[in-house]
Design a protein that fits this description.
homotetramer, 131 residues, alpha+beta, Thiol Ester Dehydrase, Chain A, 5-stranded antiparallel beta sheet, 3 helices, 5 strands, 22% helix, elongated
Chain lengths: 131, 131, 131, 131
């Protein structure tokens, strides 16, 4: 199981009046990495919905903020899927600035039927990646 | 024609690393006032779409930034509709901190058929308010 | 210990293409309630920093998303401080739509010396509220 | 004078309940391109402030929304500086999806002394680029 990572640059829009990235905005960075993890497997969420009738929904988020990111920082966001039954998956995610760990997070995502919004079996490629 | 106004408080989420409200976030404040102007007329955008098959779309925005707003500021956002044909309306909008003008804006909004996305005649109450 | 609550309206800015509030944006709602909890005690964060040399920093966030909020929803955000030593405090927070629980969260906030960024004893009124 | 361009991917965070990019969020894309235009000249805004005592402030924004961007779109944001006196500069900016023009904007930015916040002569490299 290899670890996926995605680069994120910090812009003015991400910072707050404390001069650091606003605590809620790290969740954007985390989602970009999850979306790009999917895209790296050739899957867009729009296509998943249209073709497979699947949509993802975040069920829970646990975030530990260790050090703040600042304007102009070049960050790396990692994304490592972990097994969590057949209809949901956990992503262990971290944000680094160089070697320095800024944040780690555990994000649980459910797979839903796009019409009924009921739990649905994950696509096979996600189940395999999370094993 | 009376002027509508809506109060907005500045939170951390609205500010950027410069210690002032991020320039793009004022557009959120402007939209809250437009949405509340509609709601004050008993109209929600969800209902407009479901019942009248109408949706609004911003066509252009001209904003002059005069003075910056800061954390904890209590702002007032005004909203004054102005005639612009039958299928669009202009909102003259201002943001004040007390008596002090911080920003003025001209926002042009088109009325669209929610299905075809083609121009559609504005609801009567908007046309009357904009006269 | 009484529970503090703060009303939040959902606007277009808060929603995403799935038609519901974006998962990171609930953290904005949670912070508005914490800020207003302070303000209800006569304390602004600007004044805390200028007068007492104190600033707050979120250390961790655990959020359970139970049901999604939608455009135009009128939400209630609660905020209940809980003891967590002398230099940090936990806020148990919930978001409701009417009686319906949409989200609950546990937010741990550290009190820092604004100059040195080292842990600092919480203001007395916070310690008392969290007992 | 060559035109600078910067790629932007549309994520969930950028969209709203209408299924398209929220009108205020395009201003984020525009700023990323301006910031990267500076960075391509070897200049970070943090360094400008620390070394040259300069900060930039947006004075006005005129935006024409032509077509909406959607989730997963790969956009290109252009940035072309234009002369506007010695203490401010205009950026003509456009957002494309492939060959298709989605938005054009005129953004006027003032150069300020970071301490006094009074107008200050632009750095030479900006004046030259804007000629």
């Amino acid at each position: 199981m290899t670890q996926f990572s995605w680069p994120v640059r910090v812009y003015w829009e991400d910072t707050d009046g404390g001069g650091i990235v606003y605590y809620g905005n790290y969740l954007r960075f985390l989602e970009r990495a999850r979306t790009e993890w999917l895209r790296a497997r050739g899957v867009s969420q729009g296509a998943l919905r249209a073709d497979a009738g699947i949509q993802f929904s975040v069920v829970s988020v646990n975030v530990s903020y260790r050090r703040p990111a600042q304007l102009d920082d070049a960050l790396t966001v990692t994304c490592e899927p972990q097994a969590d039954g057949r209809a949901s998956v956990r992503f262990a995610q971290r944000i680094f600035r160089g070697e320095e760990l800024l944040l780690d997070a555990d994000v649980r995502v459910a797979c839903l039927d796009a019409k009924t919004l009921r739990p649905k079996r994950l696509p096979e490629f996600v189940l395999e990646a999370a094993e």
